[in-house]
Amino acid sequence: MAKKSAIEKNKRRQKLVARYADKRAELKAIAMDENLSLEERFKARLKLAELPRNSAPSRVRNRCEVTGRPRGYYRKFKMSRIALRDLGSTGMIPGLVKSSW
């Protein structure tokens, strides 16, 4: 089980990303628009830099929904390989069969 503080920090980051997503996308579109003047684009980049760092989507870490583990994460199931194996072995995940040969 991961530290509760790390899990909570990641949840706060996810909320910030959701809150600033529209504003960040708008400023990025302005900054990347070739038809605008350099001054307008530079101002957009400065405003983008003033936004909180944790509002960037790249700072959110994929964590297991069951244990909070940050490594060995399967996106399709939203859980780590260890939790996936445990739940799959007990038959808790529909359609998943642990292979044996």
List the helices and strands and how they pair.
Blueprint: H1 4-32, H2 38-50, E1 73-74, E2 79-80, H3 81-89
Antiparallel strand pairs: 1-2
Helix pairs in contact: 1-2
Subunit structure: Part of the 30S ribosomal subunit. Contacts proteins S3 and S10.
Keywords: Ribonucleoprotein, Ribosomal protein, RNA-binding, rRNA-binding
GO molecular function: rRNA binding; structural constituent of ribosome
CATH class of the largest domain: Mainly Alpha
User: What count of structural domains?
Assistant: 2
Distance between the termini: 31 Å
Secondary structure: number of strands: 2
Strand order, largest beta sheet: 1-2
Which blocks of ≥5 consecutive residues have pLDDT under 50? none
Helix content: 40-55%
Q: Using only CA atoms, what is the Rg?
A: 20 Å
β-sheet strand percentage: under 5%
CATH topology of the largest domain: Helix Hairpins
InterPro entries: Ribosomal_uS14, Ribosomal_uS14_bac/plastid, Ribosomal_uS14_CS
Keywords: Ribonucleoprotein, Ribosomal protein, RNA-binding, rRNA-binding
Subunit structure: Part of the 30S ribosomal subunit. Contacts proteins S3 and S10.
Family: Belongs to the universal ribosomal protein uS14 family.
